[in-house]
Amino acid sequence: MMILVTGATGRLGKPTVALLTDSGHEVRSLSRRPGPGVVVADLSTGTGLADALAGVSAVVHLASGANAHDSQQTRQLLRAIAAHPVDHLIFMSIVGVDEHALAFYRDKHLSEQLIAASGIPYTILRATQFHSFIARLFVAQRRLPVTVVPSFSIQPVSIEEVAERLVELVDAGPSQRVRDFAGPEQLSFRELANEWNVAHSLRRRVWSLPLPGAAGRSFSRGVHLASLPGDAHVTFAEYARTHAESAMR
Question: Three-class SS of residue 6?
Answer without folding.
Answer: strand
